[in-house]
Amino acid sequence: MPPFDISFYLSYIQIEKCATDSDEERIIACYEDSLKHFGKENIDLWLSYFEFKNSKPSLHLDASNVYWRAMKNLHTDLIESFTQKFSLFQINLESKNLKRSSSSDEVMTNE
Question: Which domain holds residue 87?
Answer without folding.
Answer: 6-110
